[in-house]
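# nightly structure sweep
# worker-07 picked up a monomer target from the shared queue
# config: single-sequence mode, recycle default, output format = structure tokens
# input follows
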Amino acid sequence: MKWVAKAIIHHNEKRIAVWFENKPALNARFKKLPNVKWSQTLGAWHVPDTIQNRQKFAIAEENQTIKTTPLSINNQHILSQFIETIQLKGYSGSTLKTYKNEFTLFLTYLNQKSASECNLLDVRAYILYCLNELKLTEATIHSRINALKFYYEKILHFERFSMEIPRPKKPYQLPKVIDINDVKKLFDVTTNLKHNTMLKVCYGMGLRVSEIVGLKIKDVDSKRMQVLIEKGKGKKDRYANLPESLLQQLRNYFKEYKPKYYLFEGVNGTQYSCRSAQQVFKHALIKANINKTVGIHSLRHSFATHLLENGTDIRYIQELLGHNDIKTTLLYTNVSDKSIRKIKSPLDDINS
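# output follows
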């Protein structure tokens, strides 16, 4: 396993941050370490700065601890301008949070140098540092480039950013799909009415986890058998079809839990968190004894794939999923094409 470790001060606490290639198996191993935590800001796992951990991650002298440098006054103003511009352009809260975190890391890297004084060569040097020193994944690099692109193109009006700062090629990944019989198993083992309803809403309408927890009672139209997905990805509204088999269960759920505003509410009527919804799915996966490394988003992938296998037109699936580009929806043809999967291997002829 290739990794980079550094002693840091994080939230006034001595920690050791570790960056490594983002693979499910590696993440699972790291989660088992005592007192390990994930930092979205650092884009890394971090553990207590102990003698044992220093030996484990080859951290040498105590004086090698790197304390995060406070932003210079100028870069503090630049960060404020950056945040305000994102807000004025009406970007979503999740985009604001991601861009802010990524841009703050860049400003920290610059130390006392002003971001406004940097040229594209300085930005290239930073991206190479993230690739070669921090060993960040392609997806994380793309996220950092997006934040920098916003600053240099939208605020400083650089014209050649995209040409001068190439992006690392992302691995071609197919959607992870759950067999329809395993989906049924997930529902069968989830006996809690609230959790069961949540999973069925996710699969039955092909929703993203943020869309599930954002559903409001008023969005459900039982007369038209439709559900309004308000401000989905890209701040777009769309309608999803309400499965007939789910209507009575939704009514039973409503009678028992009596939600006030959101369809699925957490403690004291607050919005259910995405993390909690992910945990519901994870526990169902374990109880159903389904040995796949997938998240709740795989129910959305499975919804699209199973629709394709039932003969639904790809254009309708695109609309139901809320995809801007048909190319995104066409990915599902690579995992659902029955005609391809029916091709018999010549090995079967030899062994028959």
